[in-house]
Each structure stands twice: as structure tokens, then as C-alpha cells.
Design brief:
22% strand, extended, 8 helices, five-stranded mixed β-barrel
């Protein structure tokens, strides 16, 4: 197991840069996609669906009804009787067989020697499958026989039929002429839907009374509509029964964006071609070719919003997927520690399950560490990717963050409780004259003539200080203005002077908590709201300091609790004898 864990760790180390590259590509791809979506702002919006020759070669946005030819008759003859009409870009079908399937389950548990014991079990169930299953390969084939069931030989198990090229048209009233012809790229944006509700219940009767036997030829009379499918089963399906799903790609209206271009040889029909890539940003990045369709009539802003939403959705899927892959990679890197921690299971020989408890805790810690490492590395990679993709926005964000921090620190200094201490260096005079020529000898009495002002201090040193020299800093507690809050109270015996005393505690909340006595001063003239805001800022700052210190203390405590695991992991050093 340890050799396998070491190999897994090496694979994890190789997997980490791959995950980082995926994260980096995803963020750059998002920036490019978003820049491409913003190009739609420059498109000319048609108020009607009649092409304008003057807009030929321009980027346009058009919302129209959609025309598509009827392609229902292109289905195989076994399926076409069930669909009389369908106007769309394509039709597809997929066939499934009802049969036995085998599922393998492996359950493993750790042994007290630190190894693993695994056991495989097999379960069998009947379900619809898109491919034939050979039951002779089952571990326990008895009672689970699929026989010689197969797809019909006269109908492909799956397939599709498409409308002719350049036959899908966006026009004023859904007519085939005088509009915008869609190429295959735009047609691919049309949504697919299950056509079960459009199917006929059964095919026209025939002289044949055959039923499906699990193989051979399939006729329309062997099928009927049930639950959105064409099925051979009447009631509960039996082994070998078929069901066929038919889907179609179509829409009644659409909105398209692309460069308008006249079709060669046509007088009134136009089509769309992609807008070539455009450069943006500092490093010469380019947008993707812009040619896009949405299966609905929307405004320009709605078109752009949906484009952005799709870009963000794809980016978040890849972010989450990358984080999961990165976590798996770090789990692989830490797998030798996981295997070493399994050695704690040996404690079960002399304790009542303590080894299992400690091993479970160790695996939890290792898994959490893998996730946190993956999260940190993924976040750093995203930040670097954004800086390279959007340097201006990134620099602006850094500048705003630094500015907020500077303002916050200045606010914190202003909100310091009480009168601040101020250096008195500006008020300190240089040494005055004296008849005494004594100098400081490192001990004894100190006279004013032994001191002089230097760099904001009173020092005994002239030039570079020597061992035993002194320096004295003088601070004063003062302020030119202040704002105070407290209960006003007249001074005993005075007619016009007053002082403050603390506001007594007040009860608040459900459980009878009490406020602290309120008497406070801020060394500046501020409004009531600024006074309260600075008070809140000081409270939050103190709370966060205590939170962080508490977290550090809690981490130290858990490190002490897990110290036996650390010592056990040191046993891996024995591998140095042979590696």
C-alpha cells in the first residue's frame, strides 16, 4: 500500500500543474468570451426582419420568425407513420432494450494491522439500456438471462436526419423568402425537444399480426405510443422489449447576431457570417468570432445579458470542477501520510477502538488540508490569471484596496480612546550653557548639561553612541480639540462648570445582558454619526484581533491533540533506509 501511495503522490504532483493550467485557461477564456459578448453593443438593431442592402458587411442584430422545412417524411419507414409533420432543423431517434444488468459493488474496511480488506458483491436489476447486454458474462447468470435480444436489423438503433443546407430562414412572417438564411453554425444553437406529445398513438393497421420477439425486423404495427416513447411493450415491459425516443431541433422564432452578407446569386436573401476577432486589452488579446443565435425574440440588452450569463455559468462549472480536481491531486500527494496514519489501527489490539477513532481523525485532517491547499492555490492562480487578462482592472482593484486600508488605518488612529500621546521632540531645546564640563560616565548623577537634543531624543552621546550612553524620549498627552459623550453633571460648588460621569449600564436583549458604562472621548471634532462609526470600528477591530488569536490558540490546541499522529508519521523516515 505504501508503494502504491508513493506512486499516487508522484501522479498528484504531476496533476497539480495541469489543474493550474486549466484554471488559468478558464479565467482567460472567460475574459475573452465576455469581451466577445460586449461587441454586440456595436451591432445595428433591425426594427423589422427585412434585410437592408445598406447594412451589407455590418454587424447586425435581428429578431424574427423562423421558417423550417417539413422533414418528418425523412424518418425511417418504421417510425415515419407516427409523425405526420415536423418543421425543424433535424430529427433524431434513440432505441433502448429492456434487459438484465449487473452492478458490481466493492466494500473495503481497514484492518487492525493498517491494511485493507475488500469484498465484492453483485446485484442484478432490469432496466432500459442503450446497448445489448450479454448475460453470459455475468458472475451469477442464473435467473438473469437476456437470451438473444438485440436491436432490429431493419432500423438503426440511433440516428438523425437533417434539413437541407441553407433551408432554415429568419423572415418577417416565417416565410422561406426575403429574409436571413441560417448556416449550420447558427442552426446548431436551436434547442432540441422530446416529440413524444406529437406522436400518433399507433400506426395504421395492417394484415400482419406479428409481435416483437426480441430480435429480427421491426414493423410500425409492433409499436405504440406510451409515456412519450414508441414501445413494443403493452403494460409492464418484458426482457427484450424496445422503446424509441424521437427528438427534434426547432424553434418558432429566434434572435441572431452576425455580419450581414448577401448570398451569391440571390437578389433578396442574405445570410450571416462571423465577425472577425477584435483586439482588446494591453497584451493584444483577441475576441472570438462573433456569430450567435438565441431561440427567442429578445432585445439587444437581453441578448447580451443571456450571453454573459452563459459565459459565467460555464466559468463557474469549470472553477468548481478544477477545485475538485485540485483537491483530488493534493489528496494523492498526501496519500503516503494517509497510509502511514492507518498504522494507528494497531492500537485496536490494546484499546477499545481508539485506533479507529484516531485514524478517522487523521484522515479527516489530511482531507481538510488537501482541500485548503487546493483552495489557496486555485485562488492564487485565478488572481494571477485575472491580472494577466485584465491588468488595468486588477491594478485599479489593488489601488482601491490599498486606499481603503489607508483610510481605515487613519480612522483607527483618530478613534483611539482618550487623548493621544504626542512626541514632544519639537518642544525640546538643545543643551544650554553651563560652567560644568562634566560628561556622563555610564553611572552616577545626571545633569542637564550632560544631555543634548538629537533625532527627537535627549542623548548623552555626541556622535555615535558608546556603551552606557543614555537617550530619553519625552511624550505628552494632549489634543487641540475633542468630542466627548457622557452624562452631564454640575461640579459641586461651581455655578457654571460641569463635568461628565458614566452612563449606568442598560439592559438589552432577551437574556438580560447589560451594556458597559458609557463615558468616552475622541480626540477630534466629529459628528454624532462619525462618533458612533469610529466607536463601532474600534469594537470590530478588537473583536477581530481576539478572533484571530483565539483561532491560533485553537489551532495550537488541535496540534497538541494530534501530536501522536505527527510522531506516527515520522515513522515514514524509516523509508530512507531503502529509498
Amino acid at each position: 500500500r505504501m508503494c502504491g501511495a508513493v506512486c499516487s503522490s508522484i501522479c498528484g504532483v504531476l496533476m497539480i500543474p495541469i489543474c493550474m493550467a486549466l484554471v488559468f485557461w478558464n479565467e482567460n477564456n472567460l475574459v475573452i468570451n465576455e469581451a466577445t459578448a460586449n461587441l454586440v453593443h456595436d451591432a445595428t438593431v433591425y426594427s423589422s426582419c427585412v434585410p437592408s442592402p445598406s447594412a451589407n458587411g455590418d454587424l447586425v442584430l435581428v429578431a424574427c420568425d423562423l421558417y423550417a422545412p417539413d422533414i418528418a417524411g425523412e424518418l425511417p419507414h418504421t417510425l415515419s407513420p407516427f409523425l405526420s409533420h415536423f418543421s425543424g432543423a433535424s430529427l433524431s431517434w434513440n432505441t433502448e432494450i429492456y434487459q438484465w444488468t449487473e452492478d458490481e459493488h466493492e466494500s473495503c474496511h481497514k484492518t487492525n494491522s493498517g491494511g485493507k480488506s475488500c469484498r465484492k458483491t453483485y446485484s442484478y436489476s432490469t432496466e432500459w439500456s442503450s446497448s445489448p447486454v450479454d448475460s453470459s458474462d455475468f458472475v451469477h447468470p442464473g435467473g438473469h438471462d437476456n437470451g438473444h435480444t438485440d436491436f432490429p436489423h431493419n432500423v438503426e438503433s440511433s440516428g438523425s436526419v437533417d434539413a437541407p443546407p441553407l433551408s432554415i430562414v429568419m423572415s418577417q412572417h416565417g416565410t422561406p423568402d426575403g429574409g436571413f438564411v441560417l448556416d449550420s453554425s447558427l442552426v446548431s444553437y436551436l434547442p432540441s425537444e422530446n416529440l413524444g406529445n406529437r406522436l400518433k398513438s399507433s400506426a395504421p393497421p395492417s394484415n400482419s399480426s406479428d409481435e416483437w420477439q426480441g430480435a429480427g425486423s421491426l414493423t410500425p404495427q409492433m409499436l405504440h405510443k406510451y409515456d412519450g416513447y414508441l414501445q413494443t411493450a403493452y403494460g409492464s415491459p418484458q426482457i427484450g422489449d424496445l422503446r424509441i425516443q424521437i427528438t427534434g431541433q426547432t424553434a418558432d422564432e429566434a434572435t441572431a447576431c452576425g455580419v450581414q452578407q448577401r448570398i451569391h446569386g440571390a437578389s433578396s436573401d442574405y445570410t450571416f457570417v462571423p465577425l472577425p476577432p477584435k483586439k482588446f486589452g494591453w497584451f493584444g488579446k483577441q475576441t472570438k468570432p462573433l456569430e450567435r443565435l438565441q431561440a427567442d425574440k429578445v432585445t439587444q440588452e437581453e441578448f447580451i445579458d443571456q450571453y454573459h450569463a452563459e459565459n459565467q455559468g460555464l466559468a463557474w462549472i469549470l472553477r468548481i470542477g478544477s477545485l475538485i480536481l485540485m483537491t483530488m491531486a493534493f489528496n494523492m500527494v498526501l496519500s503516503p501520510l494517509s497510509v502511514a496514519a492507518d498504522g494507528l489501527m494497531m492500537l485496536n489490539y490494546c484499546t477499545c477502538g481508539l485506533g479507529s477513532v484516531l485514524d478517522g481523525a487523521a484522515q479527516c485532517v489530511i482531507g481538510t488540508a488537501a482541500f485548503l491547499l487546493a483552495l489557496v492555490l486555485t485562488t492564487i492562480t485565478i488572481a494571477v490569471a485575472w491580472f494577466t487578462a485584465r491588468p488595468a482592472a486588477s491594478l485599479l482593484a489593488v489601488a482601491v484596496t490599498v486606499g481603503i486600508y489607508v483610510v481605515f488605518m487613519k480612522t483607527q488612529k483618530k478613534s483611539a480612546r482618550g487623548t493621544p500621546y504626542v512626541s514632544m521632540a519639537a518642544w525640546v531645546r538643545s543643551r544650554g550653557p553651563s560652567n560644568s564640563s562634566d560628561e556622563w560616565q555610564g553611572a552616577g548623577s545626571l545633569t542637564p548639561q550632560m544631555l543634548h537634543k538629537n533625532d527627537g531624543y535627549l542623548q548623552t552621546a555626541n556622535g555615535s553612541p558608546q556603551i552606557g550612553d543614555l537617550r530619553i524620549q519625552i511624550n505628552g498627552k494632549m489634543s487641540d480639540e475633542a468630542t466627548a459623550c457622557g452624562v452631564q453633571k454640575g461640579i459641586h460648588g461651581a455655578t457654571s462648570d460641569y463635568t461628565f460621569e458614566p452612563l449606568p449600564p442598560k439592559k438589552f436583549g432577551w437574556f438580560g445582558k447589560q451594556t458597559k458604562p458609557l463615558e468616552r472621548l475622541q480626540a477630534d471634532r466629529v459628528t454624532q454619526e462619525e462618533f458612533i462609526h469610529q466607536y463601532h470600528s474600534e469594537n470590530q477591530g478588537m473583536a477581530w484581533i481576539i478572533r484571530i488569536v483565539s483561532l491560533l490558540l485553537m489551532t495550537c490546541a488541535f496540534n497538541m491533540v494530534l501530536s501522536p499522529l505527527s510522531v506516527a508519521a515520522d515513522g515514514l523516515m524509516m523509508l530512507n533506509y531503502c529509498t
